[in-house]
Amino acid sequence: MAATAVRCLLMAAAVLAPLFAGSEGAFLSSKFYDRRCPSLQTIVRSAMAQAVAAEPRMGASILRLFFHDCFVNGCDASILLDDTANFTGEKNAGPNANSVRGYDVIDTIKAQVEAACKATVSCADIVALAARDSVNLLGGPTWAVQLGRRDARNASQSAANSNLPSAGSSLAGLIATFGSKGLSARDMTALSGAHTIGQARCATFRDRIYNDTNVDAKFAALRKQTCPQTGGDATLAPIDVSTPTWFDTTYFENLANKQGLFHSDQELYNGGSQDVMVRVYMRNPDIFAADFAKAMGKMGSLMPSADTPTEIRLDCKKIN
Ligand code: HEM
């Protein structure tokens, strides 16, 4: 009798789960696709392995894509929607335009996933898995991704313009921005460790190398070689000066050496509340790995508001 009751409850939960997936963190499960799409995680992993082998930076780009999706009305793949004649999305918002990349990789994975499991897996879940695999393929930790997100049928360019932190942010500003998403200062510092991989455009760090006083002189001189005071806005430099395609803790060492590339990076180690965490992560890669994985899980559970219309998009670039 008791077993039957438990079975009924489980069945009811399975039926109702999609209805609740639109509200904060509800009913996500690492087993969500175990029966619905058993090959999902293998498909994503091998496609990301190929993409990263072809271009290691792609791992960084996909990780950032996930961050920029989650911070704007939750992890709902809204960032993937193309602008159309009567729809303005997030791709061309200030922090994303000519900057966020990897959309084609997500489209390739989605096509493979659709071929294996039609109309079953959300684009938002594909991005979450691809971000996790990116980190791991570049030498970082791995973790079980909570799944069951749904894709938004709308996007907000204005939210993308206002919700994402900029390279000029102060420590107080960063703590407030992440705090508004339910992420602690410690989560923020751990997540900033993502800047151990990837590249940035001169325009985003020019002020730092020409105007900041807490910058290592040799490092600033090195970056000035390819980032002039005027022009060259799009010229790239590695964010981590020593190992830009390896997910390690050198980012935090760089901060301790005043070699953070962005003003916002160096704010984490400038005599403020996060100095202690920077030193902890720098000396304890295991603590960083555990905190990063945990904070990615928290960031990944940001959901669109319950009244956001959602679906399982068939093509990540457009609503069904
Ligand atoms: C703490 C606040 C943050 C600020 C102010 C910030 C700012 C930036 C900026 C300005 C760039 C360069 C963009 C360009 O050149 O166009 C960048 C790149 C990047 N960011 Fe952040 N970011 C922050 C947090 C994060 C988080 C939380 C993640 C992921 C968990 C992340 C992952 C990355 C990655 C991987 C890149 C390199 C992307 C590539 O090479 O394509 N960032 N970030």
UniProtKB/TrEMBL annotation:
Q: Which residues form the signal peptide?
A: 1-25
Q: What residues form the catalytic site here?
A: 68 (proton acceptor)
Output the PROSITE patterns linked to this UniProt entry.
PEROXIDASE_1 (PS00435), PEROXIDASE_2 (PS00436), PEROXIDASE_4 (PS50873)
Q: Which Cys residues form disulphide pairs?
A: 37-117, 70-75, 123-316, 202-227
MF terms from GO for this chain are: heme binding; lactoperoxidase activity; metal ion binding; peroxidase activity
Give a GO cellular-component term. Answer: plant-type cell wall
Q: Which InterPro entries match?
A: Haem_peroxidase, Haem_peroxidase_sf, Peroxidase_pln, Peroxidases_AS, Peroxidases_heam-ligand_BS, Secretory_peroxidase
- Superkingdom to which the source organism belongs: Eukaryota
**EC numbers for this chain:** 1.11.1.7
The record describes the protein's role as: Removal of H(2)O(2), oxidation of toxic reductants, biosynthesis and degradation of lignin, suberization, auxin catabolism, response to environmental stresses such as wounding, pathogen attack and oxidative stress.
Q: What is this protein called?
A: Peroxidase
